[in-house]
Amino acid sequence: MKKIYLGRDKKLCGLCAGIGNYFNLDPTLIRIAFTTVALFTAIFPALIIYLVLSLVVPQAPDDYVEVNKGKLLTRGVDKKITGVCSGYAEYFGVDVTVIRLIFALLILFVGGGFWLYLISLLFMPTYHIPEEFTS
């Protein structure tokens, strides 16, 4: 049986890293989703839930191996503004135009797309092109 543990790739308590590892997703994606939901619903209850879960979920044993699908990074290639959309496209394996269209529709009709974009920009590490490809 698969168990959930606090992850070692922690920013606060390791809860998002543990959830990401359990579902084989990058912890950055979990952090973005949690922060977005917390901002659009209620921040205080979300923080209480986070703290309670951080106390309930056990630490990983020493022999526990974390496996993640890949890293969610802002991409230096095919970027228009900051590379957030191309990072999502690379991570999910879809065309970047589809992701840009989704963000544009979210911004125009829902309003949450702007905040999701900013939160993503805040949490997503930057992709660095290896030096052998830059010259």
Into which percentage range does the β-strand content fall? under 5%
Main beta sheet = none
From the helix content, strand content and strand pairing, which structural class follows?
mainly alpha
Morphology call? globular
In which range does the helix fraction lie?
A: 40-55%
- Radius of gyration, taken over Cα atoms and rounded to an integer in Å: 16 Å
Oligomeric assembly: single chain
If helices are DSSP runs of H or I spanning 4 or more residues, what is the number of helices?
Answer: 6
Mean pLDDT: 80
Point out poorly predicted stretches: none
> What is the tally of beta strands?
0
Element-level helix/strand string: HHHHHH
N-to-C terminal Cα separation, in Å? 49 Å
Notes on the structure:
- This protein has helices at residues 15-22, 27-40, 43-56, 84-92, 96-110, 112-123.
- With 135 residues, the protein is mostly helical.
Features of this protein?
globular, 53% helix
